Amino acid sequence: MTMAACLTVATAGWVLPGRELPGQEPASQELPSSWTEPVEPFALGEELWYVGTAELGSYLFTSDDGHILLDVPLQDNVEQVEANIRTLGFDPADVRIILTTQAHFDHVGGVASFARRHGARVFMSAADAEMAARGGAGPGAEGLTGYQPVRAARILGHLDRVRLGGWELTAHQTPGHTPGCTSWSGTARVGEDPVPFVVGCSLGVLPGYTLHGAEPTYPGIDTDFCRSVAHLRSLPGELFLGAHASFFGLASKRRAQEGGELRAFVDPDRYRDYLDRNAARIDSVLVAQGVPGGCAQVLEEATDPDRTAILQASRAFSRAYVQGDTAAVRALYTEDALLLPRGREIRGREAIARYFGPVAGRVNLSHAMTSSSLEIRDDQAVDIGIWSNRWRMGDGPEQEASARYLVVWRRGDDGRWRIETDMWHQPGG
Ligand SMILES: [Zn+2]
Q1: What CA–CA distance (Å, rounded) separates 333 from 213?
Q2: N or C terminus: which one in the chain shows less Cβ crowding within 10 Å?
């Protein structure tokens, strides 16, 4: 999608989300009322305050040297956040640093306005800074609304620390939901005890996301999601907070806290449950999109660069074939590659590219190669699996076919994997 098209869609309204998990993007043109519903600000720990709405998180870390504000959700929430800060006895003008979880409109929509009004500096991950500078446009934002562009004063890398007063917050790159999704950790004092906290970025797979296939939402989104869950599992999320209040059950915890339960928000079980549920959801999307092994498979493949490169080249073939991109098909075969479709023998990448080239009247709808066994030895690999494709002739009915394939890949001197031998047979053929 071009940038112009993306921006047009972005300002057009909201996407229709799945409802599997709470705290995902809005379900209709109407924002859920909880997104703007006010909540009395309150302490989560010493010098750590909740200043967000009933559903959209905003966290204030206060100190004598100034304050850190994490997320300013919607543009419509700015005055509410300011009022909450004042209610607690602080001055919004003392907010020195604004941090963010994700460059979506419901978490940074108010950042530009707040930063401008109070002279605060915005720190963001590189990928989210890029998205926020475009007012929320980019991969992982299709269909979502835009917002006032944000200019980041500092770019944060994985495990970078932000210090102010007595606070030290660590930025964790947990991409997937957005390419620069950032979760935060640190230690807060709850009562007498130091308690490690995590403010989690979203892990939701939005309905339009393609994690796997020829055209992912962005390259590497599958490994990003899977690695982010694995990384978040390594953090001691005892005081578990998040971009959305429903991640950690703010309302019921707040009631318990008001009832005198000092440690109401300390809930490591809820944190693990939250990660488990998101991991299951990510796995189910991966399975539906052609990765039967889910994140386990994605992570295994990611640790093997040759395997990944071959599977990517395999997907590139499918894409080139469907698009009738003869040059791209040619580039995937070795100079004197051998193609053995049933009853034929085609030698050389030029002839092969012609064989797969556009056919008058034929519209290719999809093509996929699903590998069931890929054995790599040095510069050669044998890939066995099933391909399937769908097409139609002119306005005729949709047709489909599938076959068992055997592809021999060869790694060239340039390090790239290309097809050396390619054969298949249809059932009964
Ligand atoms: Zn989001």
Answers
A1: 20
A2: C
